[in-house]
Amino acid sequence: MNSTPAAAAPNAPADTALSTQIQLAARPVGWPTHDNFRTVTVELPPLSDGQVRVVNEFVSVDPYMRGRMNDVKSYTPPYALDATMTGGAVGRVVASASDTLAVGDVVLHNFGWRDIVQEDATAGFRVVPELPGVPLSAYLGILGLTGLTAYIGLLDIAALKEGDTVFISGAAGAVGTAAGQIARLKGAGRVIGSAGTAEKIALLTEKYGYDAAFNYREGPVRAQLAAAAPDGIDVYFDNVGGDHLEAALASFNDGGRAAMCGAIGSYNSTEPTPGPNNMGNLVTRGLTLKGFTVGHYMHHFPEFMREMTEWFQNGDIVFDETVVDGIEHSVDAFFDLMRGGNIGKMVVRVGAGSRLSDAG
Amino acid sequence: MNSTPAAAAPNAPADTALSTQIQLAARPVGWPTHDNFRTVTVELPPLSDGQVRVVNEFVSVDPYMRGRMNDVKSYTPPYALDATMTGGAVGRVVASASDTLAVGDVVLHNFGWRDIVQEDATAGFRVVPELPGVPLSAYLGILGLTGLTAYIGLLDIAALKEGDTVFISGAAGAVGTAAGQIARLKGAGRVIGSAGTAEKIALLTEKYGYDAAFNYREGPVRAQLAAAAPDGIDVYFDNVGGDHLEAALASFNDGGRAAMCGAIGSYNSTEPTPGPNNMGNLVTRGLTLKGFTVGHYMHHFPEFMREMTEWFQNGDIVFDETVVDGIEHSVDAFFDLMRGGNIGKMVVRVGAGSRLSDAG
C-alpha cells in the first residue's frame, strides 16, 4: 500500500498524466455485472489556469449508487452512460494552478471512481484537516456523509427521544454502525440491530453497543424483531426495506417514526417489490414514515461535525472499514457491498502513485 | 320523520323505557354479515341520581368501526362482543336527574347504536347548540369529528401549503367532501379526487370544487392520477390505501406528504393486503407518510369549530348526507357505507319517539 502517493512526486503532474477511470457502459437490469462497466485510461493535459490535480487516496462505493444506474426520476439525475462514475472521494492536491488550493491540501470531492482528478479548483473540492490517528477514509464514512446520514436520520427525520427503543436494519453497514452508536449516545433506551452474518451480529453487541441483534437469514424478521423488542419499538432506521420494514410496522408502538434511508433489499430486483402488508398500522398507531437523502440536509453538517468530532476525540465512537485495494477493483468492491460483504464503510484504496505519469 | 321526538314527551322517561340496541354478536371475517350483529331491547329503569336519559336523533356509522370489530391491537380496544356498538350519536335530553344537563339539551356522545341512552350525566355528553337551518346530524359530519378529521389531516398531518396540488381518495365520502373544500379554502393550487360512481365524480367537480375527478373503477388508478396531475402531487389524503396509495407514491413530487386517514379498500380483506410496490420513492423523493386518528387531535377542536362555523355561515361549505331511517337499520347502513353506497356522511335517523315507553 502507498497511502500518500502524492508525497513521492509533488510536482510531476504539471505535465501530462494518465488517469484510470471507471465508466458506466450500460445500465444494469437486476444485479449488475462487469459488462455494465468499462475501465478507461485518460491522458490528462498539463494544468490550465485555475485547475488542480488531485491524486485520490480513497474512493467511496455506496448503496445509493445502484439507484443512480437506473434511468428513472429520482432526487439526482441518473448516471450518464459512458461517463466516469461520480461519488465521494478523498485525495491530495499534487499540482495547482489556482490560488485557492495548494499542493499537499487534502480534499474531499465527488469526482468518484478514478485515481487522478483534474478539474477547476472551484468545482467542488473541500479542504479537510488531517487528524492524528484517523485515516483519510473516515471522511467518506463516519466523519462524512455516511455519519451525517445516520445523525440526520435518527435526530431530525425520526426525532429520536431519550428512552426510545430503536431498531436499525443493515446495522453492520457504514450507516448502521454509526446510527447504533449515535442512538446510544443520544439516550436511546434499547438499540436493536439486524445483519446477515454471525460475525456481524457478534460485532453489533460486542463492539457497537447494540443491546440485541439478530441474523435476518436465520428466520422471519417479524418474529425475530418481536422477540428482541417485546415492548415494541419507537424508532426504525431503515436501510433495507421489504420484510424489515414490514417487521418494524408490526412492532411499532403508537407514534412510532421511521427514517427511510435506503432499501438495499430491493435495489437489484427486476420486478417491483410489494410493500409491507400492514400499512394499515400507520393509521391505527399514528405512525410516520419519512424518507430522506442526506443531500437535502447539508446545512446540518457543521453541527454534526462538531458533535461527531467531540465523540471521536472522547473515544465514544468506533468504526470499521472494509478496504479494497486498487482503483481497478472499484467494481468488485461495489458488487461486494451489494452482497453485504462489508463491515462498516466499504472504500477503495486507490494506491495511484505508481501510475503517475512522469514521462509526459 | 320525527326530528324532535323528545318534545312530545318531555317527562315521560322518568319511568322505565325500552331501548333498542345493536350489539356485536360475533367478529366478522372478511365482509360482515347480519349474523355478526344482534338487535336487543333493553328495559331502562327509572333514572338514578345523576343520570340523564337521551333520545338519539342521529347515530353515526363510520368506516373505522370495521377495524374495531377485529380483535387486534389498535389505537382503541376492539369492540366487546355482546355489547352495544359504540360510536358517535347526537340526541336530546328527555329526562334528567343531574344538575349539569337539562331536559331539552342537545348532546353529542359516543354511546352509539341505540335509540335511547341512559347514563351518568358526566359520562361524556357534550352540549351543542342548535344552529338555524343546520340538521343535528351535521355534528356527526362536517361540524364534528368527520370535519375535524379532514381539517387536521390536511393542515396538521399533511402540512398543506398554498399552491399545493392535492389528491384525495374516497373523495365523495364524508371526510373527502370536507377535505376537498378545506383544501380549496386554504389555497391549494389544484384539487383532484377519486370515487367509484359517475354520480359521485360529477358531484366532486360540480358541487365540491374539485378541479378534476376520476372513477377508480374505470381504469388503473396510477394512470388516471398521472393524467389528472401531469405536474405531480404534493399532498395526498388517503382514505382508501392499496392501489390509490401506490398511485400517489408514483405521482408525488419531491417532499410530498400523505395524511393516512384510512384504508377502506382493505378493511374487509381476509388476507393481508400487499403494500405499494414503490415504497422506494419515499427515500428518493423525500416523502412523508403519516397516519393519524382524530382522537389524538381533539385539542384542535375549538380552532376547527371556529373556522368551520365561519365558513359555514359564509356559505363556503356545502355537504351531503346519506340518511337511513330507523335504528333497526343501522347494520344495513353500515354495510352500505362499506360498499361505498353513501355520498357524504352516512347517518342513521333514529326516529325513536314512537318507541318511548310511557307505560312504565
Automatic annotation (TrEMBL), chains A, B:
Entries under SUPFAM superfamilies matching the protein? GroES-like, NAD(P)-binding Rossmann-fold domains
Q: What InterPro entries does the annotation carry?
A: ADH-like_C, ADH_N_2, ER, GroES-like_sf, MDR_fam, NAD(P)-bd_dom_sf
Ranges for domain Enoyl reductase (ER) come to 32-348
One of the record's GO molecular function terms: oxidoreductase activity, acting on the CH-CH group of donors, NAD or NADP as acceptor
- Assigned keywords, A-Z: Oxidoreductase
PANTHER family, sorted: PROSTAGLANDIN REDUCTASE (PTHR43205), PROSTAGLANDIN REDUCTASE 1 (PTHR43205:SF7)
- What is the protein name given in its UniProt record? Enoyl reductase (ER) domain-containing protein
The species this protein belongs to is: Glaciibacter psychrotolerans
